[in-house]
Design brief:
single chain; globular
């Protein structure tokens, strides 16, 4: 069934070894992911990076937000730039462990402080709780920039999948609340549109890792039962809902999408809408890939995309 998609040969060969993502039973999916990540994190080399954790205060009586920090042990002189990292997982899975290797890579390659937010998950904590947590963590980072040795004008947002959707929503929220303003938004395979009406969302019902059914379940959990696709969904929940005029004044963006991903076309449309609103925007379609293909690190197409992603962030941070 999957042969009808022209996957990159190295990615196709890796598919039998990739764990299935099935969020019909969220508890089981979380347990399976946590077990896999525990093994991977324990085996990760953190040489050259100081990994720590802090709690950021939240507003309105919400629990404090856990942040994982990655700091170069021998940084260059002067204040560091920072990357605020928001993990994926369909709004229902994940923790900073998901991007542990990636955050270590960014810390080393960019000589930057990386801060990864452990936001609350749906459906127990639907919108706006995850976004509120992301906002609280970003406020903590910007508010403590001096103590952390960070340049407050050089904080970039990075997110993947649902994390990229949260990053996009966060740029809208901080602009409308008057800050703190990130200098850049780096959105990988972003989940932006609960309506799932694009051609890719309708076509890719059988793709690995993520498909239309998974996307629908994810949005149902995040927005609440029966709200997906309905009128009145907030752009802070689904940034694709923002009117063209509402996208002006956002930070420069880099949007990357996977060729065989139900989320592909909403990412393309959002990048085009940002550009039309006057936001400097780069769009990259990575050929032969599927949602979550970043995990196949040895594949040439992923190595190339990784090098480009790091270079884009390096340029945005002035490194």
């Amino acid at each position: 069934m999957l042969s009808r998609h022209r996957f990159d040969p190295e990615l196709a060969a890796a598919l039998p070894m990739m764990p299935e993502v099935d969020i019909t039973d969220i508890g089981r999916a979380r347990a399976a992911q946590a077990e896999q990540l525990a093994v991977a994190v324990a085996a990760t080399d953190t040489k050259g990076v100081e990994v720590g954790e802090v709690l950021a205060p939240a507003a309105d009586g919400a629990p404090a937000v856990r942040l994982r920090t990655y700091r170069p042990q021998e940084p260059e002189a002067g204040p560091l730039p920072a990357v605020y990292s928001i993990h994926g997982g369909g709004f229902v899975l994940g923790s900073p462990d998901v991007d542990h290797d990636w955050n270590l890579l960014l810390c080393r390659e960019l000589e930057a402080l990386v801060v990864s937010v452990d936001y609350r998950l749906a459906p127990e904590h639907p919108f706006p709780a995850p976004l509120d947590d992301c906002y609280a963590g970003l406020r903590w980072l910007a508010g403590n920039a001096g103590r952390l040795g960070v340049r407050p004008d050089r904080i970039a947002l990075w997110g993947d999948s649902a994390g990229a959707g949260l990053a996009a929503a966060l740029t809208l929220l901080v602009r409308d609340r008057g800050g703190p303003a990130p200098c850049f938004q780096h959105l990988c395979s972003p989940a932006l549109d609960d309506r799932l009406e694009t051609a890719s969302a309708r076509t890719f019902t059988d793709t690995p890792v993520w498909n239309r059914r998974s996307a629908a379940l994810s949005w149902e959990a995040y927005l609440g039962p029966g709200l997906r696709g309905s009128a009145g969904v907030s752009p802070y929940a689904a940034p694709a809902r923002a009117t063209p005029s509402a996208l002006s004044g956002l930070p420069p963006a880099y949007v990357s999408v996977m060729e065989f991903d139900p989320l592909r076309d909403e990412g393309v449309a959002y990048a085009r809408a940002l550009a039309a609103a006057g936001v400097p925007t780069e769009l990259r379609l990575i050929p032969g890939t599927f949602h979550g293909a970043w995990a196949v690190e040895h594949a040439g197409v992923i190595q190339g995309a990784t090098a480009e992603a790091v270079a884009v962030l390096r340029r945005a941070l002035g490194r």
